[in-house]
Design brief:
Blueprint (H helix, E strand, L loop, with lengths): L5 H15 L4 H11 L3 H6 L1 H5 L2 H5 L4 E10 L5 E12 L5 E7 L5 H17 L5 E7 L8 H15 L8 E4 L6 H15 L20 H19 L8 E4 L4 H12 L3 E2 L1 E4 L2 E4 L6 H10 L5 H6 L4 E4 L10 E3 L9 H9 L4 E3 L8 H9 L3 E3 L1 H4 L2 H15 L5 H25 L6 H19 L4
Parallel strand pairs: 3-4, 3-5, 6-7, 6-11, 11-12, 12-13
Antiparallel strand pairs: 1-2, 2-4, 8-9, 9-10
Helix pairs in contact: 1-2, 2-6, 6-18, 7-8, 9-10, 9-16, 9-17, 10-11, 13-14, 16-17, 17-18
Bound molecules: nicotinamide-adenine-dinucleotide (NAD).
The site of nicotinamide-adenine-dinucleotide has 21 residues, from α10.
GO molecular function: glutamate dehydrogenase (NADP+) activity
Subunit structure: Homohexamer.
Family: Belongs to the Glu/Leu/Phe/Val dehydrogenases family.
């Protein structure tokens, strides 16, 4: 059999995905971003072409779409759509978060599930990739409404998940409160205390220490490693951070612990600038406890100010951490950051940087860390939560954080080494994609055509 060249093979597979998933713009963006970097790997491993690895990798193993009916506080019937995409289980059971946000659709969940395969491979934790969610909007809903929604969502999802098959966690709009409601319903329906079926649980009932902080902390650990390679550090640098949710909050906390100064946070309405450094207690109170708008922060904190609309990327800093949502940092934003002297951009969110912005950073010699490597600390700690659940044990904070730190160092090293091996040292996009792909492809090859 004559094999196509790696470049022709990538082109052929991309065309098939574009035809089969026409209109799924986020998913197509994520697929192209990975496939475009893989030709050098395929040149070294023709058996991956022969084994049809790419063709299989871009098609989810299984997808569920279901109705989620619930009643609001006025007793009106509401209906949302639930989705779970089980993308690839070559390395272990499907693992990936649930997102509750009005923008959720199949394309968004497939892009996140596809990214998750590679991210999970980079953690070395033996977990496959999946993702799910709903177009339910938790904003402005009462706790009781959120509970009824979560219970209805789980009443269907229960048929598809389990500690050895598929283990969801949180993402945008899904935090400890939602995981609690869903775990309660799972336990009630199955009559089993299967702690390892969901991660991000409360620490008093099976959750892991440092899971809440892990994605944000991990992103900063990754930035620290990347800067250290370039003989720099976090200390003394200013950081612009977008978002004010789970990832952003703990990225800010770790930047400050390491001697840097985080000066911004945002939500979908606008952003705040606090030149003295973000007051974390106030940020957690406003966004985490009160679930209020970010403008509240500026009202209560002298010396800070709020900008309606606009973008945190207009604020000069050496470090940037996009931690809100996909495609939030565009080519124009990248050019502003570059002209303001940014040194390193680390993705806390999934695919927050558009392809032209990534190209601009790489062209200008700015260190750029893709989310599938830099934000892997969250899912890695979720895997540690699963191990503790299986062993019925509980680690303290120090052990949990030091394991996270070690994993992020390993992810950085594997990513950097792969960038060197495939000819572009310091290209972390190439490094993350190729290191992860080889691990998944090898496992798929050894497990036969399934
Ligand atoms: N939670 C995790 O462990 C984890 C792990 C890896 C990656 N991520 C990614 O990190 C990002 C943030 O997730 P999170 O868990 O912090 O969620 P969250 O719900 O705690 O916070 C989301 C943040 O993004 C902002 N946001 C959402 N949509 C927006 C929009 N359209 N415009 C501007 N801002 C918007 C929200 O205001 C909020 O500040 C997502 O891309 C998510 O996929 C999360």
């Amino acid at each position: 059999m004559t094999l196509p060249t790696p470049e022709a093979h990538v082109r052929d597979v991309t065309e098939v995905v574009e035809r089969r998933s026409a209109g799924e713009s986020e998913f197509l963006q994520a697929v192209r971003e990975v496939l475009d970097t893989l030709a050098p790997v395929l040149a070294e491993h023709p058996e991956f072409i022969e084994g049809g690895i790419l063709e299989r990798l871009v098609e989810p193993e299984r997808q569920y779409i279901f109705r989620v009916p619930w009643t609001d506080d006025q007793n009106r019937v509401q209906v949302n759509r639930g989705i779970r995409v089980q993308f690839n289980s070559a390395l272990g059971p499907y693992k990936g978060g649930l997102r509750f946000h009005p923008s959720v659709n199949l394309s968004v969940i497939k892009f996140l599930g596809f990214e998750q395969i590679f991210k999970n491979a980079l953690t070395s934790q033996r977990i496959g990739g999946g993702k799910g969610g709903s177009d339910f909007d938790p904003t402005g809903k009462s706790d009781a409404e959120v509970m009824r929604f979560c219970q209805s969502f789980m009443t269907e999802l229960v048929h598809h998940i389990g500690e050895h098959t598929d283990i969801p966690a949180g993402d945008i709009g899904v935090g400890a409160r939602e995981i609690g409601f869903m775990f309660g319903q799972y336990r009630r329906i199955t009559q089993r205390y299967e702690a390892g079926v969901l991660t991000g649980k409360g620490v008093g009932w099976g959750g892991a220490e440092v899971r809440t902080e892990a994605t944000g902390y991990g992103a900063v650990f990754f930035a620290e490693e990347m800067l250290a390679r370039a003989s720099q550090g976090i200390e003394g640098y200013r950081a612009v951070v977008s978002g004010s949710g789970n990832v952003a909050t703990y990225a800010i906390e770790k930047v400050e612990q390491l001697g840097g100064k985080a000066i911004t946070a945002s939500d979908s309405s606008g952003y705040i600038v606090d030149e003295a450094g973000i007051d974390l207690d106030l940020l957690k109170q406003v966004k985490g406890v009160e679930r209020a708008r970010i403008s509240e922060y500026a009202e209560r904190r002298p010396g800070s100010h709020y900008v309606a609309g606009g973008s945190v990327w207009d604020v000069p800093a050496e470090l940037a951490f996009p931690c809100a949502t996909q495609n939030e940092l565009t080519g124009a934003h990248a050019r502003t950051l570059i002209s303001n002297g940014v040194r390193a951009v680390t993705e806390g969110a999934n695919m927050p940087t558009t392809p032209d912005a990534v190209e601009a950073f790489q062209g200008a010699g700015v260190l750029f860390a893709p989310g599938k490597a830099a934000n892997a600390g969250g899912v890695a700690t979720s895997a540690l939560e699963m191990s503790q659940n299986a062993a019925r044990s509980r680690w303290d904070r120090d052990k949990s954080e030091s394991r996270l730190h070690g994993i992020m160092r390993d992810v950085h090293e594997a990513t950097y080494d792969a960038s060197e091996r495939y000819g572009k040292p310091g290209d972390y996009v190439l490094g993350a994609n190729s290191a992860a792909f080889v691990r998944v492809a090898q496992a798929m090859l050894e497990q036969g055509v399934i």
